[in-house]
């Protein structure tokens, strides 16, 4: 795999006794490495140039960090539903989720024109540089756009292939497949609503919540939890509790991401903290800021936060940040994150999961929402 695969411990194949979250994470990372070895081998058999330029870049993005939250939530859903024995199906489901995430990141960065991802050039930026270095003919941007679309498509194809194998090998395949189908459609719908909102100048809070739910909350937490639980044959009561817990935790995750998108440190987040503001992306943070500015009569804040043509001015970005602070929007969103995280834990308790699993879920919600576990109502 050209040195791309990380050094990891050998996988834990069975969960006859309860595995720790750390053991599960090591096993999932090992499975992801094996999956990538396999798909890269098939890519090279198909065509070496395609494998070098596209497939290797997709694999590099997948292995270049990321919180692996979707994998962790799938694992937690499996445990909550009483999953034991052979852990391979849930580990492979986690690998498929990481590949879907790669597809979403590649396409999202391309559509948003984001230059950075996970501390390195975004895939379309890297491809444009490759075009220039190789002295190809034509426009580097046109080439990079087309190639990045293919890279995202490849990641999704790999994910679908992997999930098809898992579904066919599971006694709970139909339910697993329904969850996967729904997740893919919701992900695309959320991305479309995102660009639709920018094109129409939408600014409403309800619209922002719809986008956050479709684009992030469902496929980051709710569906991974349900996928893991489905592999364990969860009943309707457990699935309902997990869906409610996942939606709240997923929204908390996206709202935290909105805050980081405006105020985060790129050295820590691995992405720009100005893209959302420069493009006036309709985040919950921006929608709340606009509403509070109008309600308080703060015309300066209302004008700078209003939907309109993207601003490339550093001064405009600075004034937008100041307006979000001055109107209290940042504080409101911080409070909402805390509320959603706590509500998520209450829903999760309805699954009847063992205390160790509840603690594991609380820790995951803490990571996703950017809060210490005790702030979500659970002991560390």
Automatic annotation (TrEMBL):
The keyword Chloroplast does not apply. Signal peptide: none annotated. Keywords: Isoprene biosynthesis, Magnesium, Metal-binding, Transferase. Gene3D superfamilies: Farnesyl Diphosphate Synthase. The keyword Mitochondrion does not apply. Its cofactor is Mg(2+). InterPro entries: Isoprenoid_synthase_dom_sf, Polyprenyl_synt, Polyprenyl_synt_CS. It holds the Pfam family polyprenyl_synt. Belongs to the FPP/GGPP synthase family. This is Polyprenyl synthetase family protein.
């Amino acid at each position: 795999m050209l040195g791309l695969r990380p050094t990891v411990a050998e996988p834990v194949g069975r969960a006859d006794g309860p595995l720790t979250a750390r053991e599960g994470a090591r096993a999932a990372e090992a499975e992801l490495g094996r999956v990538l070895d396999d798909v890269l081998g098939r890519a090279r058999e198909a065509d070496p140039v395609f494998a070098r330029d596209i497939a290797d870049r997709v694999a590099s993005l997948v292995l270049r960090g990321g919180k692996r939250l979707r994998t962790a939530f799938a694992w937690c859903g499996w445990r909550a539903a009483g999953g034991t024995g052979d852990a391979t199906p849930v580990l492979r489901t986690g690998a498929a989720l990481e590949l879907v995430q790669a597809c979403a990141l590649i396409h999202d960065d391309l559509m948003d024109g984001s230059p950075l991802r996970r501390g390195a050039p975004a895939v379309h930026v890297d491809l444009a540089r490759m075009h220039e270095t190789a002295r190809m003919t034509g426009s580097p941007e046109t080439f990079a756009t087309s190639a990045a679309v293919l890279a995202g498509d490849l990641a999704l194809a790999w994910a679908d292939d992997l999930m098809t194998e898992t579904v066919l090998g599971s006694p709970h395949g139909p339910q697993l497949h329904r969850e996967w189908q729904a997740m893919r459609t919701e992900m695309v719908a959320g991305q479309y609503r995102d660009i639709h909102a920018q094109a129409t100048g939408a600014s409403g809070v309800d619209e922002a919540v719809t986008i956050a739910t479709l684009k992030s909350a469902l496929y980051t937490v709710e569906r991974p939890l349900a996928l893991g639980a489905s592999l364990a044959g969860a009943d309707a009561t457990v699935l309902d509790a997990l869906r409610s817990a996942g939606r709240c935790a997923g929204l908390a995750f996206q709202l935290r991401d909105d805050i980081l998108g405006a105020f985060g440190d790129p050295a820590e987040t691995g992405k720009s903290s100005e893209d959302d503001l420069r493009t006036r992306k309709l985040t919950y943070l921006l929608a709340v800021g606009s509403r509070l500015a109008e309600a308080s009569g703060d015309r300066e804040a209302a004008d700078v936060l209003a939907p309109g043509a993207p601003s490339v001015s550093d001064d405009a970005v600075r004034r937008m940040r100041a307006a979000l602070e001055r109107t209290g929007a940042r504080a409101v969103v911080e409070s909402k994150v805390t509320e959603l995280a706590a509500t998520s834990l209450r829903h999760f308790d309805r699954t009847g999961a063992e205390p160790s699993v509840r603690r594991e879920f609380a820790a995951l919600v803490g990571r996703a929402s950017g809060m210490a576990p005790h702030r979500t109502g659970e002991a560390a």
